Amino acid sequence: MRQATETTRRTTAERRRDTLERLGSERDVWVSTSHPDHGPHQVPLWFRWDGRAVWMCTGANSATARNALKEPRVRLALPDAYDVVLLQGVATCYPARDVPQDAADAFADRFGGWDPRTADAPYLYLCVTPRTVRAWRGEAELRGRVVMRDGAWLA
């Protein structure tokens, strides 16, 4: 786990910069979905940030896939309880046979050639374009933690 040692409160622009760097470099994201009868469901998945959206892939028959197909509003969290990054958006779901080729190729390249399109079991790609992003390090940064609102990065 990465622990920031600075005590200086970051500006919104600095938080945005740091968030984008983490989205481009980290591998795992916690995905939270919900089912109307069974409630919340949360799992870690590998992800790829394309500069605009988060791409993930999960088994087509998984609870995550079933939930996202019924209720596409999802929340994502990078795995660090001190350097928090939370994203909220709507998942667009693509069966492996229908995923845009450039997105699937980039996903496979990112993960050493693992390509869900060629797997025996069916997979579902989830693409989440964030509408809201919150980022903070410790209690000192709780105020002003929103760095994206309504899909637009704040200054």
TrEMBL record:
Pfam family for this entry, one: PNPOx_N
Keyword line: Oxidoreductase
GO molecular function, one term: coenzyme F420 binding
Positions of the Pyridoxamine 5'-phosphate oxidase N-terminal domain: 24-136
Keyword Cell membrane in annotation: no
Coiled-coil boundaries: none
UniProt key word Oxidoreductase: yes
GO cellular component terms attached to this protein's record: cytosol
InterPro entries: F420H2_bilvrd_red/Heme_oxyg, Pyridox_Oxase_N, Split_barrel_FMN-bd
Domain of life: Bacteria
Protein name: Pyridoxamine 5'-phosphate oxidase
